[in-house]
Amino acid sequence: MVSPRYCGRDARGEAMSDGGGGGDGRNGARKLGLQGWLGLRDGLLSAFGGVLAYARAQSAAAGDPAGDSNGDPSGDAAGNPAGKATAADPAGRAAVAVHEFRKSVRRARAVIRLLRPLIDEPEYAFLEQELRGALGAASGLRDADVLLGTLRAHPVRPGSPEAAAARAAAKALEARVAALRAGPPASVVLAEGAARLAPLPDALGAALPRALTPKDVARGLARLFRRAEKALRDARRDACDETIHDWRKRVKELRYALELLDGLRPGARSAAHRAAARLAEKLGEITDLIVLRAWLEAAGDGLPPEAAVLSDAIERGIRARFRRLCPAADALFERRPRDFAREILHPTTDAPDERTEAP
Asked: Whole-model pTM?
């Protein structure tokens, strides 16, 4: 069983020994932090290789009757009814594998974005292109399932016009999910994405400087924090679909970067990581509703007239959730980006320098 978290891997994604004779590789990365940030470069490459190795394993997991390589005793799949049903439910097993694949690729993107100030443009463009391509390969398989789940979770009053529209929309989405599942198997689609991931650990290793310091990484962390903070300001100024989506993406980048850095130190889980994870989860609920509302509007004549009433109700829910969430985000973004990065990397780390940063 391989953890989807940032686990102990070398640059090729091979398991690193933790001196304990076994395990799933998670201890390797944590041991790198026993002497502060000594071995920082190796730890970052280990984490990058680990999440990509886990992502590549999902193409097999999607078609594996045992479903064991989807296991995550410490993460999101634990206690997930879909995850528990995978051994007996091929469709559910495939859905979980697609979800885990996408999460792992997003974690890998967070690594290269954290390290963006240290990577030359051609190398960065290659890494970003391949990760985006792998993610896009699995997007269609996941999106319809998310829409259907969001619709079913949305509260409607029995017998109301919204309820009638919700039933019609659910039937349309079920047909869409069935059509996707009748196409190429998830294992085949994920294998195509996984093939793009195989060379990336070595590519990142070749692109990074031979020596890294906490100050180097702090520059990247400050940059991610600044991007998320700006996205919050943009969403507050003009709370449209695009700005809210962008805010969520920037928060997820920051959350995964903090998760990565916590994973390099024994027993660490920073308050900032917890806050960013909660914020990303709440933003995910909002953006799922935005996508559902947009789908209802685009479906047009394929749904009964009551769909407009349902769409309006969803829009009101989006605005109410957004208004409640903005004040809760203030505590995370109350510090200056450089101060935030210094606190996370090390209390005595010098402030990141002001060299030109990539956009």
From this structure: 0.78
